[in-house]
Amino acid sequence: MLDFDDSRLENADVLDAAAPLLMNLAGSGARVRREAATAEAPLAALTDADRPRAVIAYGPEARLLRAVLEPVCPVPFVAWPALGLPGWVGPLDVVLLIGRRGPESLAVAHEAVRRGSRVVVICPPDSPLALQADSRSTTLLPVSTGDPLAAAVVGLVALHRLGLGPYTSTDAIAAALDTVAEACSARTDVSVNPAKAMALDLADATPLVWGGSVLAARASRRIAEALRQASGRVGLSADASDLVGLVQQVAPRDPFEDPFEQGVAERRAGLVLVDDGLDDAAAAESRLRLQRSAEAADIRVTRLTHRDDSMMERYATVLLTGLFGAAYLQIGLGRTA
């Protein structure tokens, strides 16, 4: 088992060696700007002249689009998880494809074109998916970075142009990501760096991650996945009721335990609460239960909070902060080699 060494978070040589990991996260805002600029012309050509019967989204971040669109979309919005399309999809519907490798998206594109649906496909222009989806009813929104969040932002802009979703400011989302990258940069001291502070909180913990709103819950799942990959430990994002049960099972901390004696204690849980300020009454009550349960069990709580700006700016901010936290946990554990 690898031990966490907090000195690695301030060691210039270690941070330089981990630069590719951190620079990839820091470039998130730039990738949003690049994809929006690349797709600018076909986005401008989209209009809301003909309202579809329904929208079916497929691909990475399709559920993110549904979380943003479902409360306000004037037609049914489906994030389709399976191969193919629902049997009722036809010429009256819009199929939005966010490209990825593999035969699944090719099969969905083939089926959408065969049925005469209006297709909006977000993928590299020279990819097999672009060729498969080509038709008179297809709009290709070219992207090139492979960043699923940036592609999803392009999709949100397209849905707004079609009159199906709220206005999405790519500049504002990119600026929010840039702000996180600056706050979480390698040269920022741990005392003012929320991502390094999160890594310290989870240095020897099993992470439990929870978010109350639909978007915060989605961010919590992405963060938990990143923490699992970064640490090699079990990490869980689940409903509050499940996490409360796990927290309540944690044994009280023994004040006489020797932390340097091997085999003395099991790894304790660490709770990460994602807060985008969009909790409903039930989520607010669940958050309070989790906090009280963690306090009673003497479990450390990390809070990722951004309660201002648009839904997507909040989501992007808490998500990227959590991803930076996972990266610094990986660095502190010496798992970047």
Automatic annotation (TrEMBL):
<dbReference type="InterPro" id="IPR046348">
    <property type="entry name" value="SIS_dom_sf"/>
</dbReference>
<dbReference type="GO" id="GO:0004347">
    <property type="term" value="F:glucose-6-phosphate isomerase activity"/>
</dbReference>
<dbReference type="GO" id="GO:0005975">
    <property type="term" value="P:carbohydrate metabolic process"/>
</dbReference>
<feature type="domain" description="Bifunctional glucose-6-phosphate/mannose-6-phosphate isomerase C-terminal">
    <location>
        <begin position="192"/>
        <end position="329"/>
    </location>
</feature>
<dbReference type="Pfam" id="PF10432">
    <property type="entry name" value="bact-PGI_C"/>
</dbReference>
<dbReference type="GO" id="GO:0097367">
    <property type="term" value="F:carbohydrate derivative binding"/>
</dbReference>
<dbReference type="InterPro" id="IPR019490">
    <property type="entry name" value="Glu6P/Mann6P_isomerase_C"/>
</dbReference>
<comment type="similarity">
    <text>Belongs to the PGI/PMI family.</text>
</comment>
<protein>
    <submittedName>
        <fullName>Phospho-glucose isomerase C-terminal SIS domain-containing protein</fullName>
    </submittedName>
</protein>
<dbReference type="GO" id="GO:0004476">
    <property type="term" value="F:mannose-6-phosphate isomerase activity"/>
</dbReference>
<dbReference type="GO" id="GO:1901135">
    <property type="term" value="P:carbohydrate derivative metabolic process"/>
</dbReference>
<keyword id="KW-0413">Isomerase</keyword>
